[in-house]
């Protein structure tokens, strides 16, 4: 059966994937993965899709914002098949929506708890400051730098973990799943939210950091004459 994959942005940008490939530079990491995709397309007729315009636009912007050259942009345009998911015809079981709403309520409550803890911590530390200092502006600066700033930073990390981990929080995430469902393809991503809901939808999931190794294994078994076995 012809292999099809739908790529999330993280399929090309994941840090752990670059570490496994022993590549430090982000652009060179994208190039290496795209070259494997090109070889797999030419020799094995493996197709790699990206939802258009959502993920396709994300990849373009990511490459440009990180200083990647025009050749990498051209590789994205050449070797990744752009397709808009059929949002009207792809059917999603109703129990998925029911579970998603329940899951979102749980995550929101966890996020609210994190916010309450941050407020209490900031209040207690502000009260413990020396109230006898007369320079109000200095007190405000010191409070912002020494108390509020670090707490806000910690709050953001904990809030992100409590609320966003395991959820679909962007249109591209949903497009990746819909297109994979439509094409009966595997999803390639490093996003736990995509992985969790791919399992719920019965969609195959390939972690981004194993995808290049999978392509290398396919190519390793390609006959020397370049033809692929059927």
UniProtKB/TrEMBL annotation:
Pfam families referenced in this protein's UniProt entry, alphabetically: PIN_5
Record-stated family: Belongs to the HARP family.
Protein name: RNA-free ribonuclease P
EC code: 3.1.26.5
InterPro entries hit by this protein: RNA_free_RNase_P
Enzyme class: hydrolase
Function, as annotated: RNA-free RNase P that catalyzes the removal of the 5'-leader sequence from pre-tRNA to produce the mature 5'-terminus.
BP-aspect Gene Ontology terms: tRNA 5'-leader removal
Organism classification: Archaea, Methanobacteriati, Methanobacteriota, Stenosarchaea group, Methanomicrobia
NCBIfam families from the UniProt entry: PRK04358.1-4 (NF003343), RNA_lig_partner (TIGR03875)
Species per Swiss-Prot/TrEMBL record: Methanococcoides seepicolus
Catalytic reactions of this protein: Endonucleolytic cleavage of RNA, removing 5'-extranucleotides from tRNA precursor
A Gene Ontology molecular function term of the record: ribonuclease P activity
Alphabetical list of PANTHER family matching this protein: RNA-FREE RIBONUCLEASE P, UPF0278 PROTEIN TK1425
Keywords from the named record: Endonuclease, Hydrolase, Ligase, Nuclease, tRNA processing
